[in-house]
Specification:
- The protein has 9 helices and 5 strands, in the order H-H-H-H-H-H-H-H-H-E-E-E-E-E.
- It is of the alpha+beta class and 385 residues long.
- The chain has a 5-stranded antiparallel sheet, with no helix packed on it.
- The longest helix is centred in the middle third of the chain and has 77 residues, at 110-186.
- It is elongated and about 120 Å long.
- The N and C termini lie far apart (96 Å).
- This is Endophilin-B2.
- InterPro entries: AH/BAR_dom_sf, BAR_dom, Endophilin_B2_SH3, Endophilin_SH3RF, SH3-like_dom_sf, SH3_domain.
Length: 385
Amino acid sequence: MEFNVKKLASDAGVFFSRAMQFTEEKLGQAEKTELDAHFENLLARADCTKNWTEKILRQTEVLLQPNPSARVEEFLYEKLDRKVPSRVTNGELLAQYMTEAANDFGPGTPYGKTLIKVGETQRRLGAAEREFIRSASISFLTPLRNFLEGDWRTISKERRILQNRRLDLDACKARLKKAKAAEAKAALWNDEVEKAEHELRLTQTEFDRQAEVTRLLLEGISSTHVNHLRCLHEFVESQTNYYAQCYQFMLDLQKQLGSSKGEIFSGTFVGNAESASPSAAASPPVAAATLPAVPTIPVVPTIVGVPNTVAEGVLNPNEVKPPASGTRRARVLYDYEAADSTELALLADEMITVYSLPGMDPDWLIGERGNQKGKVPVTYLELLS
């Protein structure tokens, strides 16, 4: 009991001495031991690393999980050392709604079929997003978080100890200075001087030892940068793979919708037109919405000015001649690889001339680029006025 009381009294005395020294330094009434320039640079670099790591970590968390409530929930689970429950991504939820709607509308209807196709792509996008979040969390977020909660806490603790050692050292210097002044005034040897010198030697040793420990930790920030650089490369690789997957999924979906679009619209609108008026079936149902009107030509075994191969759905590019009017310029949106010799391969952002012919599928146009000619899909083009 007596030992505890003495220890508490000693701790209180040390705390009071440090507080007095710190206050007098702030008021300019006491001298302060300054660290060397290299040490100060290490401290500044460490603080800079900590501040930017925190900002990058928080913003990456926002990028991966924009919902703040979900982020708070994940934080609580992490602090409780419990597994975060699996959460459905927005893409997967949209896929679920589309599939249910398709079943309700009829999976065999044009709208139902398209909902199923789009829903399946959304499901694949959601799964890719889930994998990207998992990968980025492991390879990027976790190392940053480990630095802040591990290495940085150790550095901060040792810096606080160093600060206390410095305050003790400067307080001993001040006491020795006062003892020497009193000794000179009394003109005799003062035991206080010897005691103050002994305390100064001890505090100087402790300060030097703690300064070396802190210096080694601060110099380790360089290896931290190397580790974070490697993690950054892994994060970029994960993000690249994710966006490449998304791009490929959407290209596949676009091709599926492009191939079924003509069938859907011809089955829905052209079929209705045939039942209403036999003569209406001869006019192209969609071409008028995308290109200048082409004069309606009755459907006969041979179409004037147009080879039979076009009317039959088989195109011989050498036999096709552009109409006198109705051609337009178009910009290619995506690369397209020709499936056969009747189609024209496309490169993104190039300009071509396009036109429609009677009897053609409304989802296709004739494209010309120099001496090259062939069918091109409308969905890959931006028609210009």
